[in-house]
Fold:
Amino acid sequence: MSRQKRFMLVASPLMQHSAAFDRAAALAKAEGAALHIVAFDYLEGLATAGLVNEQALEHLRLGYVERHRQWLEEQARPLRKIGVEVTTEAVWVERPLEEILIHLKEQPMDMMIKALEHESLLTRIMFTPLDVHLMRQCTVPLHFVSNTRHALPRKIVAAVDPLHHHKQNQGFNDRIISKAVKLAMRCNAEVEVLYAYDLSSITSAEFGFSKGSSFFSSSMAKAMYDIQEEAFNALAERNGIQAAQCHMVMGNPAKVLTSYADAHDVDVIVMGKVSPHGLDKLIGSTAEHLLYKMPCSVLVVSAEQLED
Structure:
């Protein structure tokens, strides 16, 4: 008998019902998964209220956490009525990243779902957002929910790069496609595979061309395209993806993916991250572009995550 899947929804500390609640509920229902909703509370104003009486301050903190726990229970009731197994939790913690990682270690999850926090560019330059930290350190599939059109995804795109992979992660592109296909099957959604290739980021040595001057000749450019097309077609074929579902588009990956998602009403883009020494590479794009440029939700699959 297979183990029941478990999803974790990270809720906002501000008691806000975001689209992530609806997505988490829809996915849990579709996959028969148990859902754990947890809020990591820390309000700067309350934490630094400056009250002389520390006991009174602690009383305020406990009161807020209890009110939040009750609010989460109110959100959980309609989900239980439709057959979703839901548990809730609210904790006061100053550093949510550390607590999230502890939760995932103590309570292994098949997916973590979280509303994307849209930080300003200045904030992202000065401070690394929690969402980016999670991408760097979590091996659990991360579903960042943003700009949802449907609670249950209807169109899913797997973003792959068949020519750029680390030797220790052979088959990672296949896993990205597999994750997208399985999600689409459970949601009764369409699935497509997209390869956005950018010649400007490729060196001649990668294709065995000894002279850079001849790298961008018409014949060499054609040869490069043929090599990439062959690899892409082979990847799609061995994963049972029909030609009509495959798209190979030249251009900056981030720009191609955002434009494609916007033009084709994509609900979720499934992408992979390879982080042998931190977040040094994302297949197809960077964390910044993935999270803050995409007009849709993103499901990030780690190369370190075991296949389900």
Summary: Confidence is low (pLDDT under 50) at residues 277-281. DSSP finds ten helices and eleven strands in the chain. Residues 1-115 form a domain with the Rossmann fold fold (CATH 3.40.50.12370). The first helix runs from residue 19 to 31.
